[in-house]
Structure formats: structure tokens, C-alpha cells
Specification:
Elements lengths: L6 E4 L7 H8 L5 E7 L8 E3 L1 E4 L4 E4 L8 H17 L3 E6 L4 H13 L4 E5 L20 H15 L6 E5 L7 H14 L2 E6 L3 E5 L10 E4 L2 E5 L1 E6 H17 L4 E5 L5 H9 L4 E4 L1 H6 L2 H13 L1
Parallel strand pairs: 1-15, 2-6, 6-7, 7-8, 8-9, 9-14, 14-15
Antiparallel strand pairs: 3-11, 4-5, 5-13, 10-13, 11-12
Bound molecules: flavin mononucleotide.
The site of flavin mononucleotide has 28 residues, from strand 5, strand 13 and helix 8.
Length: 303
């Protein structure tokens, strides 16, 4: 793959405001991912909601997708798109519905406000109700995924608008469900890209000194929790075979790889299984935007 054709992104969850977009405008990403945004404003969890174990290159987060909600997003999206375009970048928005109908509505609103592409987040493991109850994860409920996609099609089809779907990780015992989910996406006729993968849910990570990486209360209430979404190197073991399988099963779908990419060598492993692009979450959080130029320079030497 020529390097100009590779999509290079920040992972969803790290850029939400025009200021965040401006940071990435002056980086080596080709696409800036804003969100995830939900229909309603969300407060995040409170306390220590992120942590990195550098020895294991493992990252945990339990932010719970804090964001200002769809109306505030749409109000500033035009400005964020302008910023991105002036710097020669595409602007991608990640949306996560509170209800099945929200995904399509939000995608249409984002396209109308000028977004270049919209990704439906089918799996935030930290998404918790005010009552502390985990919201269903569409990646793990193919029927729910079909409902969301069917509703989205009614909103997007008349203008031939397409979306991406961000999927959760699956281990080797659940590949049937992965293939069912991928089929649902392809059959919907509105999905042209997979992003694989989101974080591994409900994991405890310890720091190098043995303490918990996460110490937080859900939406500021209840007991102190230590579990969250795990990414970085431990995710790569699941994400790499998934990217490979998605490209084998559906060679015409674009696949953007996410999971433990800290170096050009990591990115290259995904490109070797035919990923069309890649993104960095943990690496961007820990090392900042210079990670993107380091990786692209490394790739330019070998591609
Ligand atoms: C701090 C943080 C916040 C995240 N928030 C979101 C989010 O809002 N939406 C989403 O789809 N994924 C979110 N993710 C998951 C990332 O987009 C990505 O899938 C995951 O971190 C794997 O990549 P990594 O190993 O490079 O971290 C978040 C990850 C991190 C580290």
C-alpha cells in the first residue's frame, strides 16, 4: 500500500472540542476523529479514570464517554470541519446512540453539518446508566446491531450516505458472533468501513507498583471501582486476528486497525494483514501527537 493511501487517525474518545481538533490539525494524522458523542450530554466517571502500565504497554480507561451531547456537537461541528479541511485533513465523527434510533439520526445530522465520515460506535464497555446499569453493547448483540442499522438505513439511504462501524474485540471462542455482526453490517448496505477494535470490557489493570490503574466512582456515586476498558498491547492479540479475518471475509470493506499501536512496527503488522489504516488511542494519550509523525516516518522508510 502506498503510504499516501493509508488512513492515520487518533482513536475515538480523545478529541471532542475545536481545541482538540486544532491540536490534531498540526499532527501527522490524515483523519481527525471527534467523539464519541451521545444523544444526551454525559457526565464522566470521577476519580482516577485512566492509567498506563508502561512495562506491559497496557492502558485502562473508565471515562464513560463524557461529552456535551448531540446538540452541542452539531453547533460546533461546522467549525471543526473547517479547521480540519484548512489543514488538509478529513473529519470523522464517532457517534454512540443512547437508543437504537439515535445512531442514524446523529449520523445524518453530522453529515448535514459537513462531517466527511461518521463511525457508529457499537461497543463502549464503560457506558453506564445513571442507575449504574451497563447499557447493552451492540457488537455483542447482533440483533440489536441489525435494528440500529435498519433504522440508520431509513435515514441515510436516500442520499446514499455510508458509515463505519466500530466493533468490540472478540476472542477465538466468539468468532461466530463476529462473523454474524460483520454480515449484519454488510447486508445493511450502509456500512463501508470497520474499525477494529474498541477496548476489552470490565478489566482490572495493575500499575508497575501493584496498585490499581483505575480508582473511580460511576458518575461520581457508589463504591470505588477498578474495572474499565483495556487497550494497548493486550488488545493487539485480539485485534490483529480480527482485522485479518474481516479482510478475508469482506475484502471490499475498508478496515481501520486499532489496538496497541505504539510504533511503525506495530502499524506494519496490521498493514501486512491488509488494514486500510490505523489509529492510536493509548499511544496518543501517553506520548502525545508526536507519536503520529514517528510512526509515519518509520513507515515511510519501509513502504
Ligand atoms: C481514554 C480513552 C477514551 C476512549 N473513548 C472512546 C470513545 O469515546 N469511543 C470509542 O469508540 N472508543 C473509545 N476508546 C477506545 C479507542 O478508540 C480504541 O479503540 C482503543 O483505545 C484501542 O486502541 P489503543 O490500543 O491504541 O488504545 C477510548 C480509548 C481511550 C484510551
Amino acid at each position: 500500500v502506498p503510504i499516501e493511501k493509508i488512513s492515520i487517525r487518533n482513536a475515538a474518545g480523545i478529541a471532542k472540542t475545536p481545541e482538540d481538533v486544532l491540536q490534531l490539525c498540526n499532527s501527522a494524522v490524515t483523519d481527525i476523529v471527534v467523539g464519541s458523542y451521545t444523544w444526551l450530554e454525559r457526565r464522566g466517571n470521577s476519580g482516577q479514570t485512566t492509567g498506563f502500565n508502561e512495562r506491559e504497554m497496557a492502558y485502562a480507561n473508565a471515562l464513560n464517554m463524557p461529552n456535551m451531547g448531540k446538540d452541542a456537537l452539531i453547533q460546533r461541528l461546522g467549525c471543526m470541519v473547517q479547521l480540519a479541511h484548512r489543514h488538509g485533513k478529513r473529519l470523522v465523527v464517532s457517534v454512540a446512540g443512547d437508543e437504537p434510533v439515535d445512531y442514524g439520526e446523529m449520523a445524518l445530522a453530522c453529515y448535514t453539518a459537513g462531517a466527511d465520515f461518521v463511525e457508529l460506535n457499537f461497543g463502549c464497555p464503560n457506558k453506564v446508566d445513571a442507575g449504574g446499569v451497563h447499557k447493552p453493547i451492540p457488537s455483542y448483540e447482533p440483533e440489536l446491531a441489525r435494528t440500529i442499522l435498519g433504522l440508520a438505513r431509513t435515514r441515510l439511504n436516500y442520499a446514499s450516505l455510508k458509515v463505519g462501524v466500530k466493533i468490540s474485540p472478540f476472542d477465538e471462542n466468539n468468532l461466530r458472533m463476529l462473523s454474524d455482526l460483520a454480515d449484519a453490517c454488510v447486508e445493511s448496505g450502509i456500512v463501508e468501513e470497520f474499525t477494529a477494535c474498541n477496548t476489552i470490557g470490565n478489566q482490572e489493570l495493575l500499575l508497575e507498583d501493584g496498585s490499581y490503574a483505575l480508582n473511580y466512582r460511576v458518575l461520581g456515586e457508589g463504591p470505588v471501582m477498578h474495572t474499565g476498558g483495556l487497550s494497548g498491547k493486550p488488545l493487539k492479540a485480539q485485534a490483529l486476528p480480527i482485522v485479518n479475518l474481516l479482510k478475508l471475509w469482506h475484502p471490499h470493506m475498508r478496515v481501520i486497525a486499532l489496538g496497541g499501536i505504539f510504533s511503525s512496527e506495530d502499524a506494519l503488522e496490521y498493514l501486512e494483514v491488509r488494514a486500510d489504516g490505523f489509529g492510536c488511542g493509548a499511544a496518543y494519550m501517553v506520548y502525545g501527537k508526536k507519536i503520529f509523525s514517528e510512526i509515519t516516518q518509520g513507515l515511510a522508510e519501509v513502504l
